Structure prediction request, 338 residues.
Amino acid sequence: MRCETMEQGLDAYRTKGLAPQIQAQFERHLADCRSCRETLARLERLAILLGSDPAPPVPQGMAGRIMAEARRQFQTPQSVDRKLPSLLRWWQSLTLPMQAAAAVVLAVGLAAGAWMGRDTGQGSSLATSTTPSKEYSFDYLSEAPAGSLVDAYLRLTLAQN
Amino acid sequence: MQSDEELMLSAGASNLAAFDEIVCRHQGSAWNTAYRYLGDAADAEDIVQETFLRLLRSADQYRPTAAFRTYLYRIITRLCIDASRKKRPRPVADLAGVAGQVADPAADLEAAERTRAVRCALDSLPPNQRMATVLRYYEGLSHLEIGEAMDTTAKAVERMLTRARATLETLLGGFLE
Prediction:
């Protein structure tokens, strides 16, 4: 086994986290390699130093406070969180950067939609210059169908005004 | 005794007694991880509480496809890293009082100095490296388990830890002689 390979696995070897067969290969290499033994010793010294920082005791009553909050949120009839729509729960499950990315995508989508739709809006305002009944040739349903005497009278009246 | 996974399934069926058991079993490691990472007791307790409440919120959707511990560490890891990105790391002055944790007055000063150096060195690591170090050295997780908790591969964890160790060895050189 090469020293480079050893270095990658020495941390796992230190905590006996390798498969027994590989652990044995490491032991054989270490018996012959002074450099890898020194690396291992360095890893162990660091682990001991980090571990010398005393473990902080769990704050008194922490579990009780967690349970009180859990009961407050989940056992009241008005519990909101349990009834959140799945979309909102999905949103809450996202990390902050993911929420920001989703918000940007949504904003870009809305902006693109608004930009593409602006022509449609202008087009419809032009279309109001004529009536739907004329545009679709349904004017024969009106009281003054095209070519009738009433139509001719109306045209004349409008031209005079 | 019920397994963690069985308790989670019960909690998902609105059994708060099962959830209480989960909290009692895992509050120690959750607290240890959050406190070691954030270095502030109040922030750490907030994160632990939020972790367990998120667990309960998602309990009805929980499927025991992975070990419960991995699921727990995944939540706490995300919350801790997010919290540390929002907040500036604690100033060194906040570490005052470390000396009071040591019982033997003769060793008090030296131990306090060492503890202070260790915590400052940990604080100086980038968030991902710091979390990998906490999970490896204080929670005893394997590279694979850390990878699952941090949503990355064991190889990436190995690289993170190698870089973290290089920084720690430089900063703590005097204590490693």
In short: Residues 42 and 48 of chain A are 10 Å apart (CA to CA). The helical segments of chain A are 3-14, 20-32, 34-51, 62-74, 86-93, 96-127, 132-135, 149-160.
